[in-house]
Amino acid sequence: MLTAEQLIAAHKANVETLFGLTNKAFEGVEKLVELNLQVAKASLGEASDHTKAVLSVKDAQELLALQASLLQPAAEKAAAYSRHVYDIAAATNAEVNKVAETQIAEAQKKFLAVVDTAVKNAPAGTENAVALVKSAVSAANNAFESVHKAAKQAADVAEANFQAITTSATKAATQAAAKTRRATA
After folding, report:
1. By C-alpha distance, which of 150, 157, 70 is closest to 62?
2. Which of 79, 118, 156, 177 could pair covalently with 72 via S-S, beta carbons 3.0-4.6 A apart?
3. What's this model's pTM, rounded to 2 decimal places?
4. What pLDDT digit, counting tens, does each position of 92-129 carry?
5. Helix 127-184 to helix 60-120 angle, to the nearest 10 degrees?
6. Burial class of 10 by CB neighbour count within 10 A (0 to 12, 13 to 18, 19+)
7. What are the boundaries of each domain within the chain?
8. What residue spans of the chain are helical by DSSP H?
């Protein structure tokens, strides 16, 4: 039986966890806003430089060469931006998962303590019911661990796919820029 103090302590811990998670989420948002401001500032300067360069070209071939020289860096910058966004999201997600795992582990521990207390105080002749409860708790813990492992594997596959797509996009931009340079030479 839970006492009033235990309930208040549990509620206080839950509120602190909620505020901790909220702070982590805001930290992630702050990092995204900072990144976007940096990208916007850099893009504005690059747009100014690009406009000046375009206005100073003398013929179509020079314009094509200028465009080709900008293609690869633009693709690399887009890939780098995507990588930063992904890293921020992954770090924020890792923090949330860490807190969630801690909370789940604590809840499991408390639940198992309640089950153990109930088992110890079970009346004689209920051994089959007790065994059934223990088996169900064990199966639930195993299922949770399996789901957790599967989610981790899925995240690893998503990371690998993201890396492959980024590499392919950068490589394609490099090849396109090289073809354009050869065509204008």
Report:
1. 70
2. 177
3. 0.61
4. 888 888 887 787 777 777 777 776 777 777 777 777 77
5. 170
6. middle
7. 4-184
8. 4-55, 60-120, 127-184
